[in-house]
Each structure stands twice: as structure tokens, then as C-alpha cells.
Amino acid sequence: MTSLDKPTTTDQDAQASKEVTEAALFEAFGGVRGMVETVLPGLLFVTIFTINKDLHLSAIAALAVSLVLVAVRLVRRDTVKHAFSGVFGVAFGVVFAMMTGNAKDFYLPGMLYTLGLALAYIITTLAGVPLIGLMLGPVFKENLSWRTRNPGRKKAYAKASWAWGLILLGKCAILFPMYWWADTTKFGWVLVALKIPPFLLAVYLTWVFLAKAPPPIDVFAEMEAEEEAEKARKAAAAQQPEA
């Protein structure tokens, strides 16, 4: 292998940065399992409702499978935040649908949450504190250092937040009109179909933006280094003979 064939340090750093970014995104957004937990309750609801038009059975089945998913995570001692958020979303949907008697209202809380999240991405980016940065900063151990010390990374977080906000707004632009004119079965299947593709697109764009951004500043490592330096100074001072 010639020197031209060997990966440079820059290439190795870039590859390491991409791998760290992939791992962080999987941790932050739940990975494949998180996507399954997001889709399964709604898929079960619309499947049962398509077959027998029974709102109560469909709602109870969706809530039951959400609780089972949480129980499995608890037994395995896995992270439960994604499963718990799914349970709360399904529970609100069940309450809405039962109160109104309209099966489409099962999806309404999730739609309102998506709209609110889209606006949050856009508003926080305009305010100079993009939401993606607030979410991923602790995962990358950089906290908010990107705001003042890493402008290239702040720019990447802003791009990613714009991507999430616009993609989610596009999703809402499809679903809210359908909520008013489409029948429950058609609306439910379209909503389930739109669960994963927009999410994957937003995650992919986030990965692209962050993979090209400067590496995060590990503020925890900095604090540890400062503590070690302070201990060394104190030890050196203690060893000095008194005048």
C-alpha cells in the first residue's frame, strides 16, 4: 500500500465523527426499535378498525400493545423514554376518540404534537438556539458549547432544525386536510404510511449536516482536565517548602 492509499489522520477523524454522529442519532431518536414502537400501536388500531369498524376494540388493542412494549423494556432494563412517550400519545388518542366517538380523533393528539414540534424547530432556530442542538448537545457531551464556541456546529444544528421543521410541516399539510375530508380507514393508513419516511429523511439530513460539521467540544472532558490540573497545582503547592 502506498502512502496515497493509506487513510490520513483527517480521513480517520472524519470517519470517527460520522460514526459518533450515527450512534448519537440512534440514541436520541430510538433507532429501529423506537420506530417500531412508534408505528405499531397506530398500525394495530387502523388494521382492527378496517376489519370490524369497532372503535373500542381498536383503541384498547392499541393501548394494550403500547403497555406491552413498555413492559418489555422494563423487563430488559432498557431505556423507556421512547416507549413511555408512545404510551402517553396512544392514551391521549384513546381518550379523544372515546369522548367524541370519532375514530379519527385517535390520531388528533399526535397530529397536534407534530405541528407543535414543527413550529418549535423553526421558532428555536430563528431565536438562535436550534432545537436539534438542545436535544443532541448532551448526547455529544458538548451541552451548549456549540452556541458560542463552535459556530460551524451551530450552523449545522440550524440547518438540521430547519429540515425537521419543514419536513414536519409538510407532513401536517397532508394530514390535516385529510382529517376533515377523508374517511377514517383511508386517513389511518395514510397516517401510518407517513410515520417513518419523513422521520428517516429528517434523520438522514441531520446526519449529513453534522457529519460535515466541526467535531463537538467535549465539555465534560474539559471539566475533568481542569479538575486534574487543579489537583496537580494544589499538590505542587503543598510540596513547596515554606519560606
From TrEMBL:
Spans traversing the lipid bilayer: 55-75, 82-99, 111-140, 161-181, 187-210
Highest taxon in the source lineage: Bacteria
Keywords carried by this UniProt record: Membrane, Transmembrane, Transmembrane helix
Protein name: DUF3159 domain-containing protein
Organism: Streptomyces lateritius
